[in-house]
Design a protein that fits this description.
The chain is mainly alpha-helical. About 75% of the residues lie in helices and about 0% in strands. The chain contains three helices and no strands.
Length: about 55
Amino acid sequence: MWKQKKRKELWLLALATLCITVLGTLQSLNTRLPNPLSWLAAILGPYPKAIYSLFQ
């Protein structure tokens, strides 16, 4: 990648590798990791309720 001047892809690969390494290390230390699906439910939670109330 470096010789082909694909620096954006190289940065993305380095960032993904760093994130995976940090998450793997935290999991091996038995740290409680947050569930991303609960974040999505908290963000998107009010919208379905509002849509259902419009149709009733």
